[in-house]
Amino acid sequence: MAITYATDLLYYLMFLIWLITALLIHYFIKTFSKPETEISPPPSPPALPFIGHLHLVGKVLPKSFQTLASCYGPLMQIRMGASQCVVVSNAAVAEEIMKTQELNFSSRPEFGASEYFIYRGSRFILSEYGDYWRFMKKLSMTRLLSVPQLNKFISVRDEEKVKLVQSVMKCYKEGKPCDLSSEFTTLTNNTICQMAMSTRCSGSDNDAAEIKGLVNTLFVLAGKLQIGDVLGPLKVLDFSGNGKKLMSALLKYDGIVERIMKEHEERAKMDFGADQRMDLMDILLEIYRDPNAEMKLTRKDIKSFLLDIFMAGTDTSSTAMQWAMGELINHPKAFRKLREEINAVVGTNRLVKESDIPNLPYLRAVIRETLRLHPSAPLIIRECAEDCTVNGYTVKSKSRVLINVYAIMRDPDSWTSPDEFIPERFLESSEEKIGEHPMEFKGQNFRYLPFGSGRRVCVGASLAMLVINTAVGSLVQCFDWKLEDGEKVDLSQGPGFSLEMAKPLVCYPIKHADVLESLV
Length: 520
Prior knowledge:
Elements: H1 2-32, H2 61-72, E1 75-80, E2 83-88, H3 91-100, H4 131-144, H5 147-151, H6 154-174, E3 178-179, H7 180-197, H8 206-227, H9 242-268, H10 280-289, H11 299-313, H12 315-330, H13 332-345, H14 361-373, E4 379-383, E5 388-390, E6 393-395, E7 400-404, H15 405-408, H16 461-478, E8 479-483, E9 506-511
Parallel strand pairs: 2-7
Antiparallel strand pairs: 1-2, 3-9, 4-7, 5-6, 8-9
Helix pairs in contact: 6-7, 6-16, 7-11, 7-12, 8-9, 12-14, 12-16
């Protein structure tokens, strides 16, 4: 009995020694035999349990990330609740992600409202990099938003610009303040509605007006659900009810657009004459009916693409125009210089036209400087496809990557007096040129990324620049501006991702030119 007990004890002792030895060998092999290529993750601020870095992030997210980057570097890891991401904050690292390793970062992750989105799988702007996205990008560049297609709607954009000036003139005649935030939103909504499906979003067309309201609702709800990402798996419980509200609004949108699509299909049966122009819905339905199309589009794809155009093209352009006017009002010298240029090139007998833009370098410089200081998309989101090394650190596959365009375009290492409004930096004579082409805005120089870069550069950039330049030019040409309170516009930034103005831009227009005498 004693011998058996001693034998068992010896067995267990030998097993324990073997186990400890195996663990030690495994530890030393893992510790001292790491390949030289293994790199640590990006630096990260100290985090708190559950909330991560939420205590370090203020209401204006891009600005908060910029402040943290000054301490933790141009590539850092941030955790907001259950949501973790890698944040890029300078031009060199942005170029590494958006050019050197572009293919690895060409997809965008699902986030926020994806589980409530009835067009999931059909989104263009937020879709994965693949056959569907490549087809829609090609279609956008060659037909939907190509120069010939944009040219067909010059008269539409001109008409909406005139309506804008007329509306502001009405405020002047009545001695009322003008809410430019509302005026610009109406301008962009009407322009896109007409180009997309040949109807205005304000006026007598109830369908279009309802779409405008639904898109505004969707924009607000989607933003709230994106912030809800901090809850992680708990977000599916939809404590706030915003997910159900989003789905309800989407179903209403779907029903309205389905009716408009059927109207377009009936019109298409009569054939388009040589003098008839096809809107975006007509083109998409033509491809939908084409049995030989490179890729078969569904009705769901069409509705989703149009929704992307509405959501991406209305508030962004409207916000940019508000910032431009706010900066010009706060900088009277720049305002006067712009007006002098317009008077010299355009005269005082007609409004600024799109064809005038190439001859108005200071107007273009004003808009580019506005987009530098106040980018409409301050955070560009990408997803890492495979593990890789960026700026000496490991970025894991499926990591969300936020490129902080706001920080990049205010980086003191890239820009002189980065927080000041200086349109002259974008003129040909400036030493602070943006690459070989000082007016370049499509992401070839990574110090300046108002519309992103590479494969996923904004397909609507050219349209946005046409609308913004002519609208701002016309309002400077026709009016002086007086504020309700004080002499300076409050240029405080609002909370969240989009960097809208904290307060709507409301001021009194004062008629300056006689350009619209024949229109009012």
